Amino acid sequence: MCGALSGGVMAIGLVYGRKTADDVEAKEIAYQKAGEYVRAFKSVNGHQDCRDLLGIDVWDDEGLIAYRARNLKSEVCLAVVGNAVRLVLGLISENNSGTESTN
After folding, report:
1. Is residue 58 part of a domain?
2. Per-residue pLDDT tens digits for 89-98
């Protein structure tokens, strides 16, 4: 799984996840939002796994060499990470729109 995707799921968990062990409602909302995020990520980026996003397997020596030689960090990863951030911020802003802070 792409690290930007998994990081986004963690961010969603922080915002929507349960604050106490027995908060089942928050858990369900977090799962729903995470699912929404994963589907949107896949729709925007075409895939959710690094191998498919990059077209190579970076977990072997040849793939890592190709990743560097083809400058895939700049050519692919930066756009994917940017897309992930925009999607997560969109979901999180939905949580905060129309609500007042309790702090």
Report:
1. yes
2. 999 987 665 4
